[in-house]
Design a protein that fits this description.
Blueprint lengths: L1 E4 L2 H10 L3 E10 L8 E7 L17 H4 L3 E7 L4 E3 L6 E6 L1 H15 L6 H7 L2 E6 L23 E6 L2 E6 L2 H9 L38 H4 L5 H5 L6 E8 L2 E11 L20 H20 L9 H5 L6 H6 L1 H13 L1
Parallel strand pairs: 2-6, 6-7, 7-8
Antiparallel strand pairs: 1-9, 2-3, 4-5, 4-11, 8-9, 10-11
Length: 340
Amino acid sequence: MGFITQQEQPDALLEHLRADYTIYAPKRYVGGGSFSDTYCVRYGEIQSVNEIIFDEKSQYSFKEVLLPVSQTLFYFTEHEVKEADAPVKGAVIFLRSCDIHALKRLDDMYLHNGPEDYYYRRLRDRIKLVLMGCGDSFENCFCVSMDINIADHYDLSTDAVGGQYFLDSKDSEWSQFLCGLGIPKQPVVPAHVTENTVTLSIPDNLDCSVSGSSIWTEYDSRCINCGRCNFVCPTCTCFSMQDLFYSENARAGERRRVWASCMVDGFTDVAGGRSYRKQNGQRMRFKVLHKVLDYKQRNGYHMCVGCGRCDDICPEYISFSNCVNRLENAMKEVSSHVAE
C-alpha cells in the first residue's frame, strides 16, 4: 500500500512504533570519522526521519544492531549462572537492498548452519525491516553484478525525494495507521539501481584449484591484516569468546561474544602453539573464496552482497571486487602450470 507524505507523517509512525521498538538507521556522527574534523555514517538510534542519511552509504553495516561488537551472553559466580537480559524492545531497522539480502546470509549462519543461535534468534524474531531505496549507485557498489539490487522482503519502504517521503507498506497495522492520518493511497515502487560503475565477473567454473595461483602472494605485503574489511562487511559472522573476571571477585564474571576476523593475527591459533594462514595473502585467499565459492556451493548463492564497504574502508586501497575479477586469469594460470 503506497503513500506520499511529508516528514510529519513518517515521524508520527515512528513515534507510534517507539513504544515497542527501538528505531535504527544510518545517521551522521560528527567527529566520528578517521580524523577529528571528519564524520562517519553508521547505524544508531533515531528519533526522526530527518536524522536518516539517505544520500550516503553507511561506512558500517547494520549487523551491529543484531550482533553487537561485544555482547554479554551470561554472568557467572561460584554458585550460579544468570543469562544476560534480552533487549526490552524489538527493533525497526532501515536497510538498503544489499543489507536486506545480507540479513538472509546472517540467518543462514546463525539459524540454519547447525543448531539455532539462541541469542540471535531472540532478537531476530522481533525486528521489522524498512527498505531504503537507492536512486543512484554509490562508489564501489556492485550490487547489480551480485543480483541483489532489488529487495521485496520488507515491512515498509521509503524513498526521500525533494522533501517528500514515498512509502510502500506491507505491514497491515502500519498501513492502517498511515491511512488513519488521512494520507491517500497511491502506487509507490521503491527505487533501485540498474547499473553500477563497478562490475564483477565470477567465473562459472570457479573451483578450489585457484588457491594455487600466484595472485595471492602480492597481498602478503599489501595487506596489513587490520581486519577492517571484515568488521564493516554485513555478512561476516565470525566471533570469539572471552571470559571477563571481575577484579573484586576473581570467581565471578561474564562471558562475552566478541567480533573476530579471519584477516587478523590470532584468528587461526590452535592448541599447541600452532597457527594456520600466517601470511596475509593466505588470509585474503580464504576470505575471497569463502565469499564467492564455498558459501555458494553450500547455499546456492554468493555470500557477498556487493555493498562495496570493504573497498571503501581499506587503508591500503585493496579492492575486493578487483581481486574477484582477477580469478578467471588466475584459473588459467593454474591450468597452464598443471599442463606443463
